[in-house]
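Exercise: predict the fold of this chain.
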Amino acid sequence: MNGKILKEKAIPTVAVILSLAAAFLFFRRFNPELFLKYESEPVSLDTIRENPSVSYAGKLPRADIPRIASIEEFESVTGSQYVTHVCEELVETGMYGLKPWVDPYSVRIFVRE
């Protein structure tokens, strides 16, 4: 009788332990963010003007969006202009580091509604 109860408890326990071990190994080996990453096409100025309520922050810009190359150009930008900037140098603060698989110029923004 005790062997039957032990068997009834041991099988689910072993199954749960094996499942957790398999899940741990899977997520240690494969990065789940890679499944979410997708390639999107660059955004044009016309696309931004057609959909003003959509946030295009972090998307790659097309050639028709002006690029800022100096501090003077940055200071002359008004809030109604669309511009892009590619950093030449980053100052490390030690507050946060990007993971090696993250592209610093492509950011996905999640908005809860």
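Check your answer against the key: The radius of gyration is 25 Å.
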